[in-house]
Amino acid sequence: MRNHLHHHPSLSLTLLFSLSVAAGSLSNPNSKHSLRRFRPVSSATPSHLISLLGSPQQASSVNAYEARQLQSCFKFIVPFDPTRPGLDFGSGVDPVRRVLSGGGVESGLVEATRPGFGSGWPEMRREEENEAVWWPPEAVRELARIAVDSGGDVGAIQWALDPSIIPVPDIEGSKENRCELTRTPYGLQFISEDLNSYLEFLFNLIAVRGPDVGLNVSLNRYDFFHGHIFLASDSGRLGILFHAKEYPAFDKNTFPYNMGYCQAGSNVQYDESMNLRNILWLAPLPDTSTTAWLAPGVLVVLDARPDGIIYKDLIPRYAHYVRTLYEEDFGECVADVNYLNCGGATPEYKIFIC
């Protein structure tokens, strides 16, 4: 199972840039483009980034200058407050469950991604969505605690998957173009329907609230449809690194790169919005010695603008043009999560974990 679930994202794109850079610079060690000569001295790391989004104690461990630089690249989809107290779960009734059932996703967020849905939700609805990120439903919190208590054991998370295989159907004409969107022709889902619903919630929340921070995405096979589940180095904290703008349209001036079959037909423009293609979700961070929680959940866009520290320190040089952060730099990879439109004229989205 583990071999099937662990892979390098956007492999064709990685090879495209890594091979072109290697061929053009490593062949001449004296070239001004030599990777060895111009490799920057690393300062900020993905672990620093995760720490800043953790408990106040973890955040204080990061160098003050690096902390300021990283924080300048955070565009929060949901407001972040590391000292926010946890909700009272003692009653056994989940305070955020309604937003993920009839009063939230089904009647709000899912509809919000369809044409004709207006903006301007009631303030209470927005607050409930915030709470669903800060303090997710019980099934999500349990998985978050398992991740940390297991010491970041990928297998402990994979045990939560239903082994029933779900074939990936033709997605928006992908088979006609010989496009394989997922790493395998089948996917899985979590045993808990609450976990699957929560993944749907995250995709839709990002699509709906992205414009608030300058990120405009569409839930389709060219733009925003997948993320990568990981367990953070050191802490084991559960997270997902989402990628938008996956297949920019070929353009001889702005994006003169052939990315294969899945790029054919794309209308995703390569522009400054590529800086915002990496979106990070982190589950609440549990205390390993008590039942308390050290930090709430997080949903943030990571701004990879060229003058920022994320671009300079965290994105490999070969991926600078496409602004890609890689989940294996954040920790142990668990699986890919895909949110694909399996419908025709009427959208019908479904989770596939590969």
Question: Main attributes?
Answer:
354 residues, two-stranded antiparallel sheet, 12 helices, 11 strands, signal
Structural class: alpha+beta
Helix proportion range: 25-40%
- Distance from N terminus to C terminus (CA atoms, Å) equals 10 Å
DSSP summary, beta strand count? 11
Strand order of the largest sheet: 1-9-6-5-4-10-11
Q: How would a textbook summarize the main sheet?
A: 7 strands, antiparallel
Question: Number of helical runs?
Answer: 12
Radius of gyration: 20 Å
Write down the domain tally.
1
Instruction: Report the sheet-strand fraction.
Output: 15-25%
Task: Give the overall form.
Answer: globular
Low-confidence stretches: 1-42, 88-93, 102-124
- Average of pLDDT: 83
Question: What order do the helices and strands come in, and which of them pair?
Answer:
Elements: H1 2-5, H2 11-26, H3 35-38, H4 46-52, H5 56-60, H6 64-71, E1 74-76, H7 105-112, H8 123-134, H9 138-149, H10 154-158, E2 161-167, E3 186-190, H11 193-209, E4 226-232, E5 238-243, E6 278-282, E7 285-286, E8 293-295, E9 298-302, H12 309-314, E10 331-341, E11 349-353
Antiparallel strand pairs: 1-9, 2-3, 4-5, 4-10, 5-6, 6-9, 7-8, 10-11
Keywords: Signal
Signal peptide: 1-27
